[in-house]
Amino acid sequence: MKITIINGSPKGSKSATYKMLVPLFEVIKIKNYELNYIDLSTKKIKSCLGCFACWLKTPGRCVIKDDADKIWETTRYSDYIVFACPLYFDNLTGLMKNFLDRGNPMSLPKLERDENGEGVHLKRLKDDKNAKLIVISNAGFPELSHFEPLRLIYRRMARNMRSEIVGEIYLPQGPLLTSGAYELKIILEKYHLILKEAYCEIFELGKISFATQQKLEQPLIPVEMYYSMVNTRMEELEIN
Ligand SMILES: Cc1cc2nc3c(=O)[nH]c(=O)nc-3n(C[C@H](O)[C@H](O)[C@H](O)COP(=O)(O)O)c2cc1C
């Protein structure tokens, strides 16, 4: 079993996104799966030029010579692709968006219809494994509602990739994961275990159980406490 993980945080291994991935690394190790971890913050990925050379002139190849083609190449034949990306302006980060756009060579230019009659491009690789998708995000605001646009974006991504989402994990109050506050130690250890449970369920049951999803969606600390914690900290730092 091959699992490709794409971390779209500009903070790479110092990110809250990475902290959410640590229990996944543990599960992958225990299960002896093959891990293909891509930290986009360490890669050179320019934005798509929109020239369509990857369809019309050099089919399957981008004219830009950087890391994007190579990374897409490594995602081939994965059983699962994990998109892990913090929320930026209610959306993906630029890093992740650039990477996704550069996946265009992986599809064919002809217009087809999906099962609902809506237009779609088929995949170039005939033996593509149609990797299942796991999506992960964290955000600075404390309410789950902030992820609504991203939920929709990930659904459309799955449709475009002719795939399905088997796990969605969204964490508001994300900066708590990297705050280093000693008072949060027990809360964060508990969250780590819930994440581990969720990842195990995805691989063993093909989905996150209702009970585990409910645990994942509990705020780490009460929302009002988070507001006052952040605002008090800003006042201490004399930041307006
Ligand atoms: C440019 C920028 C835009 C952001 N936009 C949002 C946002 O729209 N909603 C939100 O809740 N948090 C937003 N945040 C906060 C990040 O989601 C938050 O700091 C998160 O914990 C960063 O995750 P990371 O450590 O994995 O990179 C934004 C942060 C930055 C730098």
Q: How far is the first residue's CA from the last residue's CA?
A: 49 Å
Q: Which regions are unreliable across 5 or more consecutive residues at pLDDT < 50?
A: none
Percent strand equals: 5-15%
Q: Tell me the structural class.
A: alpha/beta
Radius of gyration: 19 Å
The overall strand count is: 7
* Percentage of residues assigned to helices: 25-40%
Largest sheet, spatial ordering of strands: 2-1-3-6-7
Largest sheet: 5 strands, parallel
Note the run of SSEs as H and E: EHEHHEHEEEHEHHH
Number of helices: 8
Structure description:
The protein is α/β, with parallel strands linked by helices and 240 residues long. It contains 8 helices and 7 strands; from the N terminus they run βαβααβαβββαβααα. The longest helix is centred in the C-terminal third of the chain and has 21 residues, at 185-205. It is globular, with a radius of gyration of 19 Å. The N and C termini lie far apart (49 Å). Bound molecules: flavin mononucleotide.
List keywords for this structure.
240 residues, alpha/beta, two-stranded antiparallel sheet, 7 strands, globular, binds flavin mononucleotide
Map the helices and strands.
Layout lengths: L1 E6 L8 H15 L3 E6 L13 H4 L11 H8 L4 E5 L9 H8 L10 E2 L5 E2 L11 E7 L9 H13 L4 E7 L13 H21 L4 H7 L6 H14 L4
Parallel strand pairs: 1-2, 1-3, 3-6, 6-7
Antiparallel strand pairs: 4-5
Helix pairs in contact: 1-6, 6-7
Flavin mononucleotide binds next to α1.
